[in-house]
Specification:
- The protein has about 150 residues and is an alpha/beta fold.
- The chain has six helices and five strands; from the N terminus they run E-H-E-H-E-H-E-H-E-H-H.
- The protein has a single domain, classed as Sugar-phosphate isomerase, RpiB/LacA/LacB (Ribose 5-phosphate Isomerase B, Chain: A), CATH 3.40.1400.
- The chain has a five-stranded parallel sheet, sandwiched between helices.
Length: about 150
């Protein structure tokens, strides 16, 4: 499986641990940085991961920053990207099963590395359920007129 990964300075240690874990499991990992703990701007590392997903150069993406929010917001600007912020393994499973997420966002300042690796494993092994969930996903990118 081809996986793109990126992070800011807060997620560097997590990225390195997750990347090593994925390579040990036989996955092909594209590391889009950052490559140390120097302060950086997270969008610079989100854009290449999101582009890999949007252009179908990677099956899944992993993004890590302090809260997971900034990277998730940036990634979701890309067409065909569905990035979900995860705090535990159950959410990681549900973003795949119900939302067909193709990028997982992790909050390095709020989860430990062991739990982050578990969330990645659950995310990568979960399957989209389709059905009623597909109808909802189709509405994410559609312009829908709502009446109140």
């Amino acid at each position: 499986m081809r996986i793109a990964i990126g992070c800011d300075h807060a997620g560097y240690e997590y990225k390195e641990a997750i990347k090593g874990h994925l390579i040990e499991k036989g996955h092909e990992v594209s590391d889009h940085g950052t490559h140390d703990t120097s302060s950086v701007d997270y969008p610079d590392f989100v854009h290449p991961v999101s582009k890999d997903i949007s252009d179908q150069h990677a099956h899944y993406g992993i993004l890590i920053c302090g809260t997971g929010n900034g990277v998730s917001m940036t990634a979701n600007k890309y067409k065909e990207v569905r990035c979900g912020l995860c705090w535990n393994a159950e959410i990681a499973q549900l973003i795949r099963q119900h939302n067909n997420a193709n990028i997982i966002s992790l909050p390095a300042r709020f989860v430990d590395i062991k739990d982050a690796i578990q969330m990645v494993d659950v995310f990568l092994s979960a399957q989209f359920e389709g059905g009623r969930h597909q109808r909802r996903i189709d509405k994410i990118t559609s312009e829908i007129k709502f009446s109140c």
